[in-house]
Amino acid sequence: MRIVVLLIGGVLGLAAGAVTALFAAGMFGAGAGFSDEINVNGWKSDWTIGSTAANPWTRARVARHGLLALTKEEAVYFTKGVDEDGQRLSEDCRYEVSGGDMPGLWWSVTLYDAQSYLPLNKDNAPSFDKTKAAATSDGSAWSFTVAADGPETGNWVSSRNAGTFDLMLRIYKPTPELIATPEDVLPAPVIKRLSCGGAA
Amino acid sequence: MRAFLTGLAAFAITFLIAHFVVLSALPGKIMSTVRGQMVERGMPVHAWAMSPRVTPESQPVVRPSPDLAYAICLIDLSNGPVELSVPAWPEYGSLSIFEADTDNVYAGSLDARAQGTPGIRRVIVALEGQDLYQYGEAEQVIVSKPEALALIRRLAPSQAAYEAAAALIPASRCAPL
């Protein structure tokens, strides 16, 4: 009897341990969600991404959703998968994303689907970056639309075929001030939901 | 009651073991799988290979940046150190090296505007214990396993910039010493 109980407990433990590890690594389930160690208005990051200091959960999650990520001295990565009202970002809705100059050499905002890939479409509008911001303004205040269909005017990032998605903000060569106090220094872009399902 | 506690203890112990064994093995397994896929697609070891421009149809790894031009060199240190040399770039660029377990153990700027960026960045990658005394001038990066990966990122948001980045590959080196 005792051996049977030991065996059942052991087998169940092995199975549960393996499944929870796969889930923690993001092998199934949606989105990147590296860590919320740093959270600036919903833009989440973890300064140990890519480094030897990363804990096993972060390292596994980065391997699955951000393989070949750089350490914070070279680049920092923020992700956000909800709008300002906390609603999951969805292809069915239109959003305006706005922000200011970012504390680093160069930056970009890119849209990824739940599997961490660019959505399959031919819109040629996967991201918005410092170069585009500088082309349409002085770079200190910018905005773009996220939607499945492009706006008549203005900058656009396509969510066509994205399903639920997240936005990733990359800042290359971040300033020391950003690394030291991200909550004080990062001008977190605002994701405002404009409409959903074709409603105005 | 005693049998139940015995089963619970077995569950807890094997749960922890399985959780951390799987969690620790995943990064290396994922890296190894990606490397295997690259080799299957014809990517050689010890040669810079320019990745196609990132599009929804062409995504070599998860979360690729569509604004960057990537070049990859698969490294195998089984037979000795490997030398990397990579020309600078007029805008943002970096040369980075990754361990088999995905850790980013080196990143050097390729941005010609940045102070201290050499015209050609030269790095020697080696395993712990491999003899490097005669390569004193180059930067040296020590990794723990023979299989490593080097990656060039260059800011190239246009087709013209991508082609300019690709044109630098013949002048780059990734080869055993």
Automatic annotation (TrEMBL), chain B:
SUPFAM superfamilies named among the record's database cross-references: VPA0735-like (SSF160935)
Which Pfam families does this one have?
A: DUF1254 (PF06863)
Question: Which superkingdom?
Answer: Bacteria
Show where the DUF1254 domain sits. Answer: 50-175
- The signal peptide here is none
The name this protein goes by in its record? DUF1254 domain-containing protein
Record organism: Hyphomonas polymorpha PS728
